[in-house]
Design brief:
alpha/beta, seven-stranded parallel β-sheet, two-stranded antiparallel sheet, 54% helix, flat
């Protein structure tokens, strides 16, 4: 039987009659007893014209690919340069026209291109009207608009604050310690704490000035007892200090749910009117708790006199007659009053509040700031005139004094001056003496009195001896 021709693993078929070499066993080393491999790879012939033509075509296509890579790199580089040139233009646009935030009024234009001063919002109101809750809602709204306010707490008796305060009166004055030390009640302790804090309020002003570039609003929460802040000396000092340096607005928070009675409503309006004429600042009435009852009835009472009279006719007490007559007086007060309905729990009505706040700031810049500048200049002139009058009066009273007699031993040139000249030149004669006398708390006054008494006694004894000698000589 003739066997068919067998193919080798590599190369042409083996003719019949020849034995095919067996594959190497696992124990054989490579290169020993194994068939030699073709010199140019499996099944590849060196002198094959087709293979040579294919290699030639590859070699011709390779330079084209290499040239295409730098072209792509150059195109990408040009794109990067174009984007880089656009960046300064976009930066200038951002600097000229900053992004406006929704719900927050725009920045106030300051003179000379400087940073605008922060707006101080003084929150006042009766106890239980929701002042602290309103401040919390206001601070949360501004933080949500990426415009964090600078919050100050002036209530020393509050147990916990629902908002973070930048300045807290409780860190400076201990309310209970003040009550124990001075033997005061709750209201007296609050008044005394505010008076003590008002002595350091110049430092608070410096803190506000440092943060005026970071915070556009300064919110001040006042004590629950409104009369403590409104009618005390410390409240007047704090209000005038803020109003003389920054745009300030007074916000009177009113409990809408408790003002449904026309007599209670009239008492709230009278209190608001008294605060307005005492502070002499832009005024906003915030009718809080609109989630319980809508404030439209109060706005209607303020705008329509007859509607309010109809509500008063249902009251039979003698106070209704007084309320009826006072409502006629407050018509002028209602005409220029800014009223906003807000729910501090739900956060509704804050957009309208900021609109009214921007109008109040414009009113401050238009009417109140020129008046404060005029009062400041008048006060400076009066103080300078008073100083000049006192100085002139002192010169006339003292006058030139002639020093008689011989100068004592050890006296310096300053002793030859008149009393008026000594007063005028005090502190300029010797800098060492000024430094010595600067700290009077550490001086032992008994030692200093003895040091002054000893030379004076010696001078007295010398003068007595000289007089005794003169008299004895005259007698002789």
């Amino acid at each position: 039987m003739v066997t068919p021709p067998q193919r080798r693993a590599h190369g042409p078929p083996v003719p019949s009659g020849h034995l095919q070499p067996s594959p190497p066993s696992s124990c054989q080393l490579p290169g020993r007893g194994t068939p030699p491999r073709p010199p140019h790879g499996p099944g590849r012939r060196r002198n094959d014209p087709q293979a040579r033509a294919a290699r030639g075509r590859k070699l011709q296509a390779t330079p084209r690919k290499l040239l295409a890579v730098p072209r792509k790199l150059l195109a990408n580089h040009r794109k990067l340069l174009a984007n880089h040139r656009k960046l300064p233009a976009n930066h200038r646009k951002l600097r000229i026209a900053p992004r406006k935030r929704k719900g927050v009024p725009g920045k106030m234009a300051a003179a000379g291109g400087t940073a605008a001063a922060p707006v101080c919002v003084l929150v006042l109101g009766m106890a239980g009207s929701g002042k602290t809750t309103f401040v919390q809602c206001l601070a949360a709204h501004l933080h949500g608009q990426r415009c964090p306010p600078y919050v100050i707490n002036l209530d020393p008796a509050v147990h916990e604050l629902p908002f973070p305060a930048n300045i807290d009166i409780r860190d400076t004055v201990k309310y209970k310690e003040v009550m124990k030390q001075y033997g005061l009640g709750p209201n007296g302790g609050i008044v005394t704490s505010l008076n003590l804090f008002a002595t350091r309020f110049d430092q608070v002003m410096k803190f506000i000035e440092k943060r005026q570039n970071a915070s556009k609003y300064v919110i001040i929460d006042t004590p629950g007892q409104i009369e403590v802040f409104t009618w005390s000396a410390s409240g007047t000092i704090i209000t005038e200090a803020l109003a003389s340096s920054f745009p300030s607005v007074v916000v009177y928070v009113m409990d809408t749910s408790r003002s449904t009675n026309p007599i209670t409503f009239m008492s709230n309006m009278l209190y608001a009117c008294s605060i307005l004429y005492k502070t002499k600042l832009p005024f906003i009435v915030v009718m809080n708790k609109t989630d319980i009852i809508d404030h439209s009835f109060a706005v209607e009472w303020m705008q329509d006199f007859e509607t309010f009279q109809d509500a008063l006719n249902q009251e039979t007490s003698y106070v209704s007659n007084l309320t009826r007559s006072m409502s006629l007086v407050l018509d002028e007060f209602y005409s220029s009053l800014k009223v906003v309905g807000v729910s501090a729990v739900l956060g509704t009505g804050l957009d309208d509040f900021f609109v009214q706040l921007s109008k109040a700031v414009e009113e401050y810049e238009r009417e109140y700031r020129p008046e404060y500048e005029r009062l400041r200049k008048t006060l400076e002139k009066a103080q300078n005139k008073q100083k000049k009058d006192q100085l002139e009066r002192l010169r006339k009273d003292m006058g030139p004094v002639c020093m008689q007699g011989n100068t004592l031993a050890g006296s310096d040139d300053a002793s030859a001056m008149g009393p008026s000249e000594l007063i005028l030149t005090r502190g300029n004669l010797d800098e060492d003496e000024e430094e010595r006398e600067s700290d009077t708390d550490d001086i032992d006054h008994e030692v200093t009195e003895e040091s002054h008494e000893e030379p004076a006694f010696k001078n007295f004894m010398q003068e007595t001896r000289m007089r005794y000698q003169r008299r004895s000589n005259e007698n002789e």
